[in-house]
């Protein structure tokens, strides 16, 4: 008979879920802030900006998030930067998120009809004015839904932070399962918690996608 009641398990998972939410917010907001200049560099006409931005995206998208977490936590420690698990996870997830958001936003910008670009050029605006007043407002509408959809991947990606000792939902579930020997019930509850976090985001992304599709017709 385990000394943990169902409420004990749920209560501890609720406490851990706060850290999952916090890490998700840091990664998503921080990733967005980093992604903005990367996106602008990626679509720049200057190859000195475009090439490094492309390499940055390719590197982060082409390597596993788990490896990036190891590098942020163990790799930086080797050169004298001893980061707490939260800080290391935040850095790794922020950079990982920024690479995907940059590509989502680049795709949205390039999806703006060519006629809109030509019309912007005919107004004798600078390239930044074209982007600010004509292109970006249209791209924003197309990029909202996939951006919201990617937030689900960010939440699920936080589970990997458990590997470097950060006590979020998955790590807490593992610790409770080891203490109670009731892995099925504990991980079942962990799965329900992730579902409760991710499903509303998925619904929001689908709703935004439908709205954008209706407005586009």
Helix/strand/pairing class, anyone? Answer: mainly alpha
N-to-C span: 61 Å
User: How many alpha or pi helices?
Assistant: 8
Roughly how many Å is the radius of gyration? 21 Å
CATH top level is: Mainly Alpha
Strands, count: 0
How many domains is the backbone divided into?
1
**Low-confidence parts lasting 5 or more residues at pLDDT below 50?**
none
The helicity comes to over 70%
Strand content: under 5%
Descriptive terms for the model:
single chain; mainly alpha; 8 helices
Summarize the structure.
This protein is mainly α. It has helices at 6-42, 47-61, 65-78, 85-110, 114-122, 127-157, 169-180, 183-216.
Overview of this protein structure:
With 217 residues, the chain is mainly α. It has a single domain, classed as Orthogonal Bundle (MetI-like fold), CATH 1.10.3720.10. The protein is 82% helix and 0% strand. The chain has helices at 6-42, 47-61, 65-78, 85-110, 114-122, 127-157, 169-180, 183-216. Helix 1 packs antiparallel against helix 7, helix 4 (85-110) crosses helix 6 and helix 7 runs antiparallel to helix 8 (183-216). The longest helix is centred in the first third of the chain and has 37 residues, at 6-42. The model has no long low-confidence stretch (mean pLDDT 90).
């Amino acid at each position: 008979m385990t000394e943990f009641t169902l409420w004990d398990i749920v209560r501890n998972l609720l406490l851990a879920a706060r850290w999952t939410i916090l890490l998700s917010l840091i990664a998503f907001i921080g990733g967005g802030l980093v992604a903005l200049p990367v996106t602008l560099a990626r679509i720049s006409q200057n190859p000195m900006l475009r090439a490094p931005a492309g390499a940055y995206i390719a590197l982060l998208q082409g390597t596993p998030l788990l490896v990036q977490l190891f590098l942020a936590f163990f790799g930086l420690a080797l050169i004298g930067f001893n980061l707490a698990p939260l800080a290391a996870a935040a850095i790794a997830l922020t950079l990982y998120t920024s690479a995907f958001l940059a590509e989502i936003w680049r795709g949205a910008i390039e999806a703006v009809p060519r006629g809109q670009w030509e019309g912007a050029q005919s107004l004798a605006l600078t390239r930044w004015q074209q982007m600010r007043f004509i292109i970006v407002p249209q791209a924003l509408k197309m990029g909202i839904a996939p951006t919201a959809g990617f937030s689900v991947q960010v939440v699920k990606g936080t589970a990997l932070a458990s590997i470097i000792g950060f006590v979020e939902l998955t790590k807490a579930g593992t610790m409770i399962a080891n203490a109670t020997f009731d892995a099925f019930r504990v991980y079942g509850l962990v799965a329900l918690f992730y579902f409760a976090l991710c499903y509303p985001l998925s619904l929001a992304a689908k709703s935004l996608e439908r709205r954008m599709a209706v407005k586009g017709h």
